């Protein structure tokens, strides 16, 4: 067979493979949580996902946003030029969820990379929310002229920040310093893993690597309802971990972990096992919702999709998580962007169901 013919056959086979592959999420559609927008109980704890680790938690007239990231510049801009918050896109996204009426108390940056912290000051400016995070995140706020009264810097280990609502309900945010996932060296370098912490305001536009990781947190979010009942969830923005950190006895146990999985699919299985042990097992979570699995160079007006296999292996991540789920009884669920879920209604109904 001539080389030419062989090449043509190979390209044909590849094209057919891509065609057959179709929806890259088809194997996982059964795991997606559905909208509970119809639920009207005003105390209900709702969560809405916007890709990466952007999560909006709402209860009553009060909300907390982690890692608000809406600008999502495309690949060319991200890799080859400078980036900045896009106020038009941010405003459109906030309007789409009626953020102005959500009583946004805080925008929390889990660490200071662009996809976690870049948009935060603009969201705070538009909503009056406080920017809460590391000293590096604070300098990102100052670079966007956010006033000091709107910036709260986490300085202590296991620091708790509390927001009280007039009806007696409250939020408690507990910040545990952890490690960011180690990225392959070139990717780590361009993503800002090697950059030192900020000691001066960061004024965009800048290259993405100008957003250093800064301090990186595991964030416990506790909702204290007005009747005194508490429910706690954990947000793990990056798939890094520190052994024996989250199993310390004074830390709360949680029902749900929003588990950052960016880069996890490229890690050896021993690393994945360690991550599960230290973040899921150690916290007692019964439901795991993977986050940071999407290609963050696609705008939020398009459906979420896993990134290219060159960057991550979402399929390997999901196989690992489903195997763990099968052997431990912990449940795995995914969220689509913009879908508003009554989280604990889901938790209670999933955990009482035996079949899935
Ligand atoms: C307290 O309020 C929450 C939110 O409405 C509710 O889910 C929970 O069942 C209540 N707890 C008790 C003990 O009534
Ligand atoms: C939320 O605000 C509305 C309008 O101000 C008020 O009627 C309602 O009671 C508030 N709900 C809670 C849970 O605070
Ligand atoms: C911040 O203030 C400086 C100096 O007044 C101004 O040049 C800059 O445009 C402001 N940036 C933003 C995002 O408003
Ligand atoms: C997990 O269990 C389900 C149901 O028994 C099965 O369909 C699936 O293939 C299993 N997945 C893995 C990765 O073991």
Quick description:
This is Metallo-beta-lactamase domain-containing protein. It contains ten helices and 14 strands.
Entry keywords:
Metallo-beta-lactamase, Chain A; globular; 356 residues; alpha/beta; seven-stranded mixed β-sheet; 14 strands; 10 helices; binds 2-acetamido-2-deoxy-beta-D-glucopyranose; Metallo-B-lactamas; UPF0173_UPF0282_UlaG_hydrolase
- As for the CATH topology, it is Metallo-beta-lactamase, Chain A
Biggest β-sheet, characterized?
A: 7 strands, mixed
Major sheet strand order: 6-5-4-3-2-1-14
Give the proportion of residues in helices.
25-40%
What is the number of helical segments per DSSP (H or I, 4+ residues)?
A: 10
The count of β-strands is 14
Radius of gyration: 20 Å
- Name the CATH superfamily assignment: Ribonuclease Z/Hydroxyacylglutathione hydrolase-like
Derived structural class: alpha/beta
Notes on the protein architecture:
With 356 residues, the protein is of the alpha/beta class. It has a single domain, classed as Ribonuclease Z/Hydroxyacylglutathione hydrolase-like (Metallo-beta-lactamase, Chain A). Helices cover 28% and strands 20% of the residues. The protein contains ten helices and 14 strands. The strands form two sheets. Strands 6-5-4-3-2-1-14 form a seven-stranded mixed beta sheet. The protein has a seven-stranded mixed beta sheet with strand order 7-8-9-10-11-12-13, sandwiched between helices. The chain is globular and about 50 Å long.
Q: How are the secondary structure elements laid out?
A:
Blueprint (H helix, E strand, L loop, with lengths): L2 H19 L24 E4 L5 E5 L2 E5 L8 H6 L6 H10 L7 E5 L5 H4 L2 H8 L2 E4 L1 H8 L8 E3 L5 E6 L5 E9 L6 H7 L24 E9 L5 E7 L19 E5 L8 H13 L5 E5 L22 H15 L2 E2 L7 E3 H10 L4
Parallel strand pairs: 3-4, 4-5, 5-6, 10-11, 11-12, 12-13
Antiparallel strand pairs: 1-2, 1-14, 2-3, 7-8, 8-9, 9-10
